[in-house]
Recover the amino acids of this structure.
């Protein structure tokens, strides 16, 4: 079955602490994975994709095919990182499925 | 702002009534999507369309219908067969493939049952 699992509904950290938002996937094909973010009162938007191997706003995510994971990491959290984060998996051309999301709260 | 526009922002449905949610994009994107967002369940795909006059069911298509008569428009009808329609509905669009492929989302429509 094709599935994206985000085990944490809420993750709370203090400013400056490291952050890791977990994402695991189930897919028999070659996965393409993404992280989308929704800040308060803003639209859902792409944060990063594994194929680009990029770092956006200090966030990185590495695809681990052995563990079927695509965890999102940031070494030092900032208050402006507080948002809802969704992991997404592309299963067919133009079809994207999402996880249930993790709310990140960064306290001052 | 331009891009992808959903209307109305809030919509109320009476029992047994069909309602239609509007989604328009001016990004010249071929693909368009409808997702349903429920607390604790993330985004679930209802329908998607890769090209005009063609669309495919997503994971939770029952009780919904769509049309794609124009490239820029992808309206979603919530029919009376959908027994639990109260949710936040998100429309999105994307261009096909390529290294810049990503979904652009609308601001959403909150549907509630009276």
């Amino acid at each position: 079955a094709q599935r994206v699992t985000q085990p944490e509904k809420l993750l709370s950290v203090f400013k400056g602490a490291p952050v890791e938002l977990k994402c695991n996937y189930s897919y028999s094909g070659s996965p393409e994975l993404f992280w989308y973010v929704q800040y308060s009162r803003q639209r859902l938007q792409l944060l990063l994709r594994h194929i680009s191997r990029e770092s956006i706003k200090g966030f990185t995510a590495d695809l681990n095919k052995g563990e079927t994971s695509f965890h999102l990491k940031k070494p030092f959290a900032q208050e402006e990182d507080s948002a809802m984060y969704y992991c997404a998996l592309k299963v067919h051309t133009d079809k994207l499925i999402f996880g249930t999301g993790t709310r990140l709260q960064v306290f001052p | 702002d331009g891009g992808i526009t959903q209307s109305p922002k809030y919509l109320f449905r009476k029992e047994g009534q069909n309602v239609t949610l509007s989604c328009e994009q001016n990004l010249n994107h071929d693909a368009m999507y409808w997702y349903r967002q429920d607390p604790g369940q993330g985004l679930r795909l209802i329908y998607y369309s890769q090209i005009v006059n063609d669309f495919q069911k997503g994971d939770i298509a029952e009780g919904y219908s769509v049309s794609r008569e124009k490239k820029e428009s992808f309206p979603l009808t919530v029919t009376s067969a959908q027994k639990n329609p109260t949710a936040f509905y998100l429309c999105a669009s994307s261009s096909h493939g390529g290294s810049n492929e990503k979904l652009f989302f609308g601001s959403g429509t909150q549907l509630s049952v009276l």
In short: The mean pLDDT of chain B is 91. The first strand of chain B starts at residue 4 and ends at 7. The radius of gyration of chain B is 13 Å. The interface with chain A takes residues 31, 33, 35, 40-45, 48, 50, 56, 58-59, 90, 92, 94, 96-97, 99, 102-108 of chain B (CB under 8 Å).
